[in-house]
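note to self — DONT lose this again. spent like an hour looking for the file last time. sequence + predicted structure for the chain T wanted, 47 res
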Amino acid sequence: MEPEELEGLRRANREVLDEAWIRGEPDCQTILEGATNQPRHLRNINQ
């Protein structure tokens, strides 16, 4: 895939996850919280 195609897919994926978050779908909330709001002490374990 070309870089432009990959960026388009990433953008579409973010939009889908954002919409699911707004609707309150629990699986998507868990995914997004893990990516963005994970407590620092848990992030450090994974490094």
